[in-house]
Specification:
Elements (H helix, E strand, L loop, with lengths): L1 H30 L6 E5 L6 H17 L3 E5 L6 H8 L7 E6 L5 H4 L11 E9 L2 E5 L8 H10 L5 E4 L5 H13 L4 E4 L3 H9 L5 E5 H10 L3 E5 L27 E7 L4 H16 L1 H9 L3 E2 L4 H22 L5
Parallel strand pairs: 1-2, 1-3, 6-7, 6-8
Antiparallel strand pairs: 3-10, 4-10, 4-11, 5-8, 5-9
Length: 329
Amino acid sequence: MYTRRRLALAVFTSAFAGSLIVSSQSLHAQDWPTRQPIRVIVALTPGSAIDIVARLVFEQVSKQIGQTIVIENRPGASQTLAATAVAKADPDGYTILAVGSALAVVPSTMAKLAINVQSDLTAVGSLANVPLVLVVNPAKGHKTAHDLVAAAKAKPGAFTYGSGGRGDATHLAAERFRLAAGFDGLYVPFRGAPEVLTEVMAGRLDFYMSAATPAMPLIASGGIQPLAVASATRAIALPDLPTTTEAGFANSDYEFWVGAFAPAATPRAIVDRLNREILKALEMASVRDRLKSVGGSPTPMTAEAFAEQFKREIGVNAALVKAVGLEPN
């Protein structure tokens, strides 16, 4: 009898303890996102396309969830410095990565990555596509992309072009255009878009395949001159500008996106909630208008769809990196 009572008590105690664990976990999930501020770690410098798009979207998300979201810029190592910091953060929804399409390039260009970008991160959602614009210094006298190509062919191997990091989207877009146009050049890496644009405006860099977001104000002021866009279709913000394909350079298009990721073990409920809030933000007319004003187009999609796109682009970029001859470093 005594033994049966002890057994019954043990079973009850075990069941009660289990219910406490479940309740504690449920409570923790319900507490998100009110327990502490949420950090969005941006993989490039302030003023870059990734930074501008992330701030626009997450400012609205902050309003929707009634919680503080802090933007932290952590550029470096082809966006992997920020990606590594997020991958190694607690998977509790309080650390999010805002990154560009270069994240799908680094598996092919970096030999010793601290993380596996597919298995150590989970896709949360796509924020926007930003067209890449072929820009030059107006004083160079190039009126069209063909003028630029003719000048580059006139001094083979000496024509300079740059990007915000070796192997990033602006770099590969420039390489894809260069291969399509058939000229050699000299690549110069920089830390971020503002630095590259400064060099173009100063006339020290011959061209840059810039994300439209940081370039738009400089185009409007006449500081730089756009010649074409690298996207498959014309840019909403620059409708009169031809694509590089329309300009006659086949297989020269390259898409640039900004997206959000979280640590791999982040609970699915939090990932789905974040995705819903991003989708809601992208539906807001104010957000869409502001994105358009800086050259971006919202790209609402489920977390699963974004993960599939990311996986697919890793393969596509691997082929491009091989064609360009970029050795992993």
